[in-house]
Amino acid sequence: MGLYSKYIKPQLTAALAPYTFPDKPLALWGSNFDSNASTYCTRKDAMSVPAVARARNIIVGTAASLELHTKRKMDKSRVEPTPTIISNPDKRMPSAVVYGMTCENLLFHGVAYWQIREIDETGRPSQIQWIDAPRVSQVLDSTGEIVIGYQLEAQRLPNTGVGSLIQFTGIDPDGVLNRGGRTIRTAAELERAVNRYSQEPLPTTLLKATAPMDSNKAEEMLQAWKRARQQRGTAFLSENVEMTSVGFNAAELQLTEAREYLAKEIGRLMNIPAWYVDANTNSMTYSNVTSERRALIDFSIRPLLTAIEQRLSMDDITPGTQYVEYDLDDFLRGNPLERADVYSKLIPLGVLTVDEAREEEDLVR
User: Fold this and answer.
1) Residue 88 phi/psi, 5° resolution?
2) What is the pLDDT of residue 2?
3) What is the greatest pairwise CA distance in the chain?
């Protein structure tokens, strides 16, 4: 279930119905997505794969939980209070939802869009609404190369002001659903195969009647066979029926091994360490959990954060003397022993005061 109605128009609305994600490539609407069915995977199929859902939830959930601050370029001090367009871009919902869905679009599609709803006295946007990327298509000039505007489904949007779009462009322009569609669809088909074998765990069984039998009698025999196999493993056959097995069972098909292999491939596809999507977690200590968090930021989430930071820092949203930056301190802070060691070295040097250290540790009352 998404957030917005598929049929919402660019005009302002007081309330929005739930939006249903499309099950077909956006290329049918515009030029942002590849229409080649052999490469594209729908969001619905992708999220049906546990490894994709877990990787997506870790990446998007972590990014959505981080705070954004506006800072002055001159001395890197925070602007207080944080402008509304940064702290609460859509007052109808939590900012974590807006930023989370923006990150998902960047991850899955390589692009994300906000639609401007309100403008402040400086001419900059003060309120927006998130628009799911597959609903937007580009309008090109006569050469077919230069973007001159955008359409929300079939409706042309203004290029400036209320109703126009703010575009976030990802560092990976193809997006996971297009670039890795074959891999994800293979994993989705494997999940379906596992489901089929959970219902019919044995190889395909052929029951052959040695005497003439009409179709109704054959159907009754098949239903009786299925009910009996759900209750017991031992079967009894009359002298008029012979049983033959064809195909392979689940063990022979190595479904478990295939799922483990595809989970690792999906980890590579989504730039997330395999540890996050691997069922075998081994033993984890506080120390290497901290290092895993740093790896998650550096190799998985940083490209998404950078795309959002730099777009929001552009002059049409933030004044040229300021910039927008994510606060990673709380997420990456070390364990108490490591922090105490840092304080013991910085306080004698005068870099940090005791009160500042207490504030960092939330000990100020």
Assistant:
1) -150, 75
2) 47
3) 98
